[in-house]
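PROTEIN DESIGN WORKSHEET
SECTION A - STRUCTURE
LENGTH: 206
TOKENS:
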């Protein structure tokens, strides 16, 4: 790992936070030159908040209600992230679409993980979409966030086979195993300055 100041991450969550946990574990094992400056949830009951607190990470709850629209919500979100000095925003099961306000505040510095091989099956229920379609392989995609839904430049992907008799739950569990490997790796590459975005293409430097 290269030296230098650890990169400040802001992790946005809404639910269980297993991807957050995978990133915490990799940082604590010394595998990523980063620190999680804050975990922000729009859901006060998210288990991810408990995970963060257990590791002494500052948490903030930023609920949906009370904002005129998505831009107003996002402007307040940007302020919280800036207050914590965040350099890379990591969406880890954050169940909101970001507006241009967030995307332009952190250009090529917001990552998301999606449980399918984009551009196949964007949006909600990606695992069910894959099963319904009958694909033999699905997987996960880490990508930068642009103003579309799951359309930004692709950083890393991992392929997962679809087995006969798979249910949404069994396929999701197999995909999550790969998510927990792939997402920390993408964050590591970013923090090492090894990612260049050239239009739609992401180049990984050796
Ligand atoms: C993951 O399946 C991810 O692909 C999707 O949301 C889920 C989050 O799971 N974006 P967790 O909260 O990290 O366990």
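SECTION B - SEQUENCE
RESIDUE ASSIGNMENT:
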């Amino acid at each position: 790992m290269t030296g230098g100041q650890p990169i400040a991450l802001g992790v946005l969550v809404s639910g269980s936070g297993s991807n957050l946990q995978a990133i915490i574990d990799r940082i604590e094992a010394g595998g990523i030159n980063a620190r999680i400056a804050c975990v922000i949830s729009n859901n006060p009951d998210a288990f991810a908040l408990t995970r963060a607190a257990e590791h002494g990470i500052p948490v903030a709850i930023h609920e949906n209600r009370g904002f005129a629209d998505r831009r107003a919500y996002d402007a307040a979100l940007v302020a919280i992230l800036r207050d914590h000095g965040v350099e890379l925003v990591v969406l880890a099961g954050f169940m909101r679409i970001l507006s241009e306000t967030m995307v332009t505040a952190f250009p090529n510095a917001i990552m998301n993980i999606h449980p399918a091989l984009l551009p196949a099956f964007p949006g909600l229920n990606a695992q069910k979409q894959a099963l319904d379609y009958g694909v033999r392989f699905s997987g996960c995609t880490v990508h930068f966030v642009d103003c579309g839904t799951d359309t930004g430049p692709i950083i890393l992907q991992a392929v997962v086979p679809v087995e006969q008799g798979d249910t949404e739950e069994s396929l999701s569990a197999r995909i999550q195993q790969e998510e927990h490997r792939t997402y920390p790796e993408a964050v590591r590459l970013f923090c090492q300055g090894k990612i260049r975005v050239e239009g739609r293409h992401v180049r990984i430097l050796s």
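SECTION C - NOTES
The chain is about 35% helix and 25% strand.
The first helix runs from residue 18 to 28.
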